[in-house]
């Protein structure tokens, strides 16, 4: 599988000492997507197959009952799915979130972790088709090991230089 710009950028971090790589990865990705820095998302794992991202239960992202806010949960899950798609989409295409479904099932305990996975077939499709879409499942787990939300995101990719829609 050919490496796209995001994968090439992150591969440069491999030259750093292992202890510095997580900090450098967070800095690079938070700069690329500033809102993830605002929420202080922690990019635990990011490769062509898996994105695992965490968020601590800290005051700036809490709701009125002291848990991680629903919007922060959505951001966490959207970022995990978007990053794994972003690791696979070709450089001549743009990834776009088409839809998100977030069902809140139970109260979350502590911080959260989201793990999104793409299949080999989905990754291959992104490499061979100029546009398309995939449904990306993501598992969100809290500190108690429970899944307080169930999420599904549909991501599309389109050519960067697509013609503008005709004006009436």
UniProtKB/TrEMBL annotation:
InterPro entries named among the record's database cross-references: DUF4442, HotDog_dom_sf
Pfam families with a match to the protein in the record: DUF4442
Gene3D superfamilies linked: Hotdog Thioesterase (3.10.129.10)
What is the superkingdom listed in this entry's lineage?
Bacteria
Return the SUPFAM superfamilies for the record.
Thioesterase/thiol ester dehydrase-isomerase (SSF54637)
UniProt name for this protein:
DUF4442 domain-containing protein
Q: Which organism's genome codes for this protein?
A: Roseateles subflavus
Q: What is the lineage of its organism?
A: Bacteria, Pseudomonadati, Pseudomonadota, Betaproteobacteria, Burkholderiales
């Amino acid at each position: 599988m050919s490496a796209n710009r995001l994968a090439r950028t992150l591969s440069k971090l491999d030259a750093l000492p292992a202890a510095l790589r997580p900090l450098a990865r967070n800095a690079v990705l938070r700069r690329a997507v500033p809102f993830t820095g605002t929420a202080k998302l922690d990019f635990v794992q990011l490769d062509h197959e898996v994105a695992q991202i965490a968020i601590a239960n800290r005051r700036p992202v809490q709701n009125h009952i002291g848990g991680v806010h629903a919007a922060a949960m959505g951001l966490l899950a959207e970022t995990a799915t978007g990053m794994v798609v972003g690791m696979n989409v070709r450089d001549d295409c743009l990834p776009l979130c088409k839809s998100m479904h977030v069902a809140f099932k139970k109260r979350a305990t502590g911080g959260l972790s989201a793990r999104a996975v793409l299949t080999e077939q989905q990754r291959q499709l992104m490499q061979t088709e100029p546009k398309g879409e995939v449904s990306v499942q993501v598992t969100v787990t809290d500190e108690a090991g429970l899944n307080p939300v169930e999420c599904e995101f549909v991501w599309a990719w389109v050519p960067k230089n697509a013609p503008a829609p005709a004006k009436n």
